[in-house]
Amino acid sequence: MKRYLLNHNCIYNEEKNEIRNTDNAVIIKMTAMRARCLSFIIENSESGVIDKQQLTYGLWGERGQFISDANLTQLLYLIRKDLRTLGINDFFMTIPRVGIRINNNITIEKLPEERLKRRYKIWKTAIVMAFIISIISLYAVLDMIKLLSHN
């Protein structure tokens, strides 16, 4: 799962469905649908304007044709509200009857995946433990040799 640094001070974690402000440690837990919508917006932000139909299809698939504009409007409102709580105002702007686009003043930076860091820590710990066990085993063998050589 991906993580993004938004506006230099908020980390959006797709896996946890949360946004955390790094300045004041405020955390917003999002519903799965809100998180999916925010992910879709972020992933498609470079294309400029995200068409309303494209957004609806990206979130609901074929069922999107049966989703009312009010559902999408409510979803976008709740995401804006979550972001405002963290100090990110006007993350995206509505273009009437067209869609939305990310505010040019907002930065989005993809962060390295946590899983890679976790795997590295696990491997690093395993190597250190193997080294320690090897040293202990070596000392045990040397002690056995000393005992045998005295007899």
UniProtKB/TrEMBL annotation:
Keywords: Membrane, Transmembrane, Transmembrane helix. GO terms for molecular function: DNA binding. The keyword RNA-binding does not apply. The chain crosses the membrane at residues 122-142. The keyword Transmembrane applies. GO terms for biological process: regulation of DNA-templated transcription. It comes from the Bacteria. This is OmpR/PhoB-type domain-containing protein. It comes from Scandinavium lactucae.
